[in-house]
Structures are given as C-alpha cells and as structure tokens.
Specification:
The complex is a heterodimer.
Chain A (H helix, E strand, L loop, with lengths): L1 H19 L1 H29 L1 H31 L13 E10 L8 E4 L12 E4 L2 E9 L4 E5 L6 E6 L4 E6 L7 E7 L10 E4 L11 E10 L5 E7 L8 E7 L2 H13 L1
Antiparallel strand pairs in A: 1-2, 1-12, 2-5, 3-4, 3-12, 4-5, 6-7, 6-9, 8-11, 9-10, 10-11
Chain B lengths: L6 H18 L12 H6 L6 H19 L5 H20 L18 H27 L3 H26 L3
Classes of the chains: A alpha+beta, B mainly alpha.
Amino acid sequence: MTPILFAVLELLSVCIIIFGNEIIKTRFFSEIRKTEAKVFAVFENIRYYLSLKETNTELVEENLKLREEIFALKAEIEEYQAKGYSMSDSLVYDGYSIIPGKILKNSLTQRINHVIINKGSMHGVKPDMGVITQNGVLGIVTNVSENASSVLSILSKNTGISAKIKSTGTIGPMIWEGRDTKHMCMPEIPHHIEISEGDTVCTSGYSSVFPPDIELGTIESISMTKAGFKKAVVRLFEDYSSIHFVSIVNNGKTEEINTLMEENRKK
Amino acid sequence: MNSGRLFILDAVMLIILQAIIGSMLDISVYVEIIILPIYILHLPMRTGTPVLLISAFLTGIAADLITNDIIGLYTASLVPLAFLRGTVTRLTTSKKRITSYSDIELAEMPPASTVPYYVVSTFLFSLIYFGLEAVFVGDDLMFFLGRMTASFIVNSILTTLSGLYIFRK
C-alpha cells in the first residue's frame, strides 16, 4: 500500500513539473518526438531491408519509364527551340524543386492518417508542401520539426485533392471514402461529361501544392449520385501499404500564387 | 518538535520562511537554500509512512505554488524523502538502541548520533531535487554536480543546526 501511494504521489508530482511549466512541457514533448522518430527509423530500416528485392525491381521499371520520358521531353524541347523558345521561358519552366525523403511511420487504418517522414525544417521542408510518391500523391505536410515532418495523407476523411480526368480535362475533387486504401472517388463530375472505365485520373495542377499531371489511377466504375452528378470510383496506382520513398515538392511559385489570392480576397 | 505544536503551523511557517529566503537571499548560482526537508525530518518518528507521504505532498505543493520557478519540484523531492525517512533512520542511528520506530525520538538521542541522519537525508533530498532540475531544465553534468554539492553543504549545516538547537526538547 505504502509503495503504491509513494509511486502515485511521485508520478503526480512529475506530471505537475511537466505540465505546470510551459518550457519544460515543450522540451519534454520535443524529446519524445525525437526518440519516436529514431525508433520508427530503426523499424523502417528493417522493413526496408526486407523489401529490397521488390524495391530494386520497381526502381528498374521506373528508371526505364523515366528514360522514355527524357527522350520524349528532349524531342519536345528541340521542337520548342526550333520555334524560337529558350529554356528560361516561362512556358517550359515549372518552378518545382524536389526534396527526397523516406517514410519513418506509415498509417492507413485511421479515419485521418498521418505519415511521418525523415525530412524536416533543416532540409527545407515547410508546412503545406505537397508530398508525392513513385505512383501518385501521398499528402500535404502539416507539422515540421527539425529532422522530421508529419504529412496528412490523402487517405483521410474530409481531405480531398484537385484531380483531372485526362481524356476530357474535367476537374473535380478526389476524396477518400474510408473503405479501402486502393480506391478513392470523384463524386462531382457533371452528368453531361462523357467518361469511361479505364480513363486515367491525374493531378489537375489547380492547387499550388502538387505539380500537374501526376497520374493517380484509373476509373474503375461509374454511377449516378442522388444530386445528379456522376461518381467515378478510381483505382489508385500507388500501393500505400508498401511505400518507402517519397518526394517533398517545393513549388517556387507558392508565395507568388498565395499573394495574388490574398489580394483577390481583399478586393 | 514539541508535542504540543500543531504540525500544520510548522509547515506554514517553514513555507513562508522558504519564500522569504528564496526571494531575498541570493548567495550564488550554485547555492540554493532549501529548508523544507526540516519539516519532514522532524515529524514524530511514530508517524506512519502514508501520513508522511501525504504531508510531504501537500507541503511541497503549497511551497511550489508560492515560491518555486519550477512548479512541482519541491513536491517531487519531498515525497521520496518522506518515503525513505524510515530507511535512513534505520541506517544512520545506532542499531543497539532501536527496538522499534516508536522508541525513537530524535530529541532524546545524543546529538552526535543524529548528525548522520540529517546529513544523509539532506544528501538524498539534494540529489533528487537538483537531479530532477537538471533533467527537466537541461543543465550539463558539471553545473548539476557543482550546484548539488554546494547546496548540500549549506543545507546540511542548516538542517543539522536546526535539529540540534531548535527542535530538541
């Protein structure tokens, strides 16, 4: 009884120290997060090592795909140059830079999923930057510490991204219904737009967060909603349970876009 | 302590005195004068450990709210002292004289035999108090050791003198 009373009172006292002093509380939780990141890094390294063969195969395939894209882009650049455009022209410059990253802790089973990545403020990561994967989009950076960041996954309820159906150019929100991690849906396609199963869906580029034309998936089924819109269920290209590497996207034009939007709001 | 005194008044007096010392006496960055352990050390030996623990907790909370920059530090240091008081008493007083705790009254023992009790108790309190402070505030090891040593020397002298001259019958 006495040792238990001692333990309870001492624990209470330590809690008072931590929660009754703002600076100590901040420092305490900062140390907790650092330790958490180190522990997750160890587990992630083990998981990564065990999936090296699969990762290698995916990298070879991606490499081949990228080489094809490079050849196609080179041909396009030569075409532009033949027409008199230069490489510094705004028509051919996207303004996106990439910070490579690795996932420390993944989350797929909650209604709102957060993923921890191994890059933080000292690597140039800021809140509201987009995070993309090999085969799609992961989410948006919400919190940043020195060496790690928290990303709000697109696999979260009430979170949508601006998507485009490639064949028709139709733009609309793509949301996660929370049922499984392989499907999202576009529920607000105007009923007169002709879409088909198998159509590719990509990022629209309408937000300052994600670059345009990143392929997300293909339409698997189409139905009508009660509001009279077409609802397309999209099968995602990315397998979110097995991603290791991500790219944090820094849009060099974000500040410019946000300033313009702010000015428009004020008018 | 005299048996007629109300122990609560003693606690209040010590807390007020601690507040005055804390705000007016600034000897050195390495020396922090803490007299609160005197209250726990001089509660009657027959006091049960649960009562000691609760007294230490309440005294510590009151003192923290009134005097300390780091709320909770006095409490977190006094509670272990109350828990270990019995063990310290057993280790530092002459074993030949003890038949049970209720037989022990500090005021009745030869002064010289009580000095180890005060010194060891003060050392334990200093170790816990300055250790917790160093951990939560982020002090480096040398600063913690310097602060703990200097404060322990001053506080153990104060505690021993108070035991020998103020609280004896």
